[in-house]
Amino acid sequence: MQPSGSERPLDWMRRSTIEGFAALVVGAGSGMGEACARVFAANGGRVIVADMNAESAERVAAEICASGGEARAVRLDVSSADDIEAGVRAVLDAYGRLDVLINVAVKVASVFLEDADYDDWEKAFHVNVTSALKLARACLPHLRQSPSPAIVFAGSLAGVNGYARSGSYGPSKGALITLARQMALEWAPDNIRVNVVIPGTIITPAMTRDLSAEAIETRKQQIPLGRLSEPGEQADAAVFLASPAASFITGQVLVVDGGFSQALYPQPMGMRETMRDYAMRKHT
Ligand SMILES: NC(=O)c1ccc[n+]([C@@H]2O[C@H](COP(=O)([O-])OP(=O)(O)OC[C@H]3O[C@@H](n4cnc5c(N)ncnc54)[C@H](O)[C@@H]3O)[C@@H](O)[C@H]2O)c1
Predict the structure, then answer these.
(1) Whose CA is nearest to atom 9 of ligand 1?
(2) SS3 content of the chain, % helix, strand, coil (to 5)
(3) Beta carbon of 105 within 6 Å of any ligand 1 atom
(4) Of the N and C termini of the chain, which has fewer Cβ atoms inside 10 Å?
(5) Would the pTM of this model clear 0.85, i.e. be above it?
(6) How far away, in angstroms, is 31 Cα from ligand 1 center?
């Protein structure tokens, strides 16, 4: 249980550890999910690395174990009720407890609304929203037994703002954010915290495969911190939200984007250059 009020030590940040906690990380075979599994294990937690790509899950779990962490792999397609049940069972069989669920599995679509195929639309809502609920509900009875239970989902700025040609992706991420907030309210009496990390553009294998070097350069210039995010920076935010350090944070959306979403006016009033160009010129 979290210490509260006068019982809460001043060095709670240092003491609020996930040592021994067991996490189910879904979508952990690549990118942010892989980094979440690695960070959780590196900080003393125990992880089930779950992904629909069994080979990736095995690789990540093996690498965590090789570096001294505790992890096991499970093939889990979040859109399958049987796989969800098996994944939850795997955590309990391996570690006897379930403290944290991190789910970043996603179905992405890059299509204009006018052209969107309704089958794809329904599949995306099934993976990104309905399956997120089914997964969380399957974890619920076990999370209730944890001294510090938490759920973290990955959202997207496309779920907050309109994002042309994102097909069902943006709308389904918007629904996921609202779903997480509703979970936070309904499960707060059980002390279960539910939050969302919204990543900015992450350097992942998919990103470097799908975007041209020029597009990546343009994106860097749109980000006030001047670079893309490392997957580990998203994982640090997710693991923080999952940890007792975030004991009073629930129903929140943490945007981890290097300032991208705040950069509506990159060129200050009365200046002929962007803030970044100005700073570069001044310092060189
Ligand atoms: N990469 C970015 O720049 C970015 C930006 C905004 C939001 N996000 C969000 O962050 C999350 C992680 O993104 P990423 O780029 O690290 O992802 P990624 O594509 O690198 O990895 C996603 C993983 O999920 C797995 N997966 C997909 N469908 C699944 C399913 N049905 N069941 C189980 N596993 C499944 C994939 O096999 C893959 O290993 C996603 O939810 C994404 O929408 C990413």
Answers:
(1) 154
(2) 50, 15, 35
(3) yes
(4) C
(5) yes
(6) 7
CA of 11 to the centre of ligand 1 (A): 35
Distance between Cα 27 and ligand 1 center (Å)? 6
Q: Hey, what are 182's tokens?
A: 């509703």
Residue nearest to atom 10 of ligand 1 (CA): 154
Tens of pLDDT, residue by residue over 23-62, are: 999 999 999 999 999 999 999 999 999 999 999 999 999 9
Show me where the domains of the chain are located.
Answer: 16-283
Determine the Cα–Cα distance for residues 219 and 8; give it in Å rounded to an integer: 42
Q: Does 278 participate in catalysis according to the annotation?
A: no
Residue 103 has phi, psi (to 5 degrees) of -125, 115
CB 53 less than 6 A from any atom of ligand 1: yes
Rounded to whole angstroms, what are the CA distances from 251 to 137, 164, 170, 185, 188? 17, 27, 19, 7, 9
Domain 16-283 has CATH 3.50.50.60: no
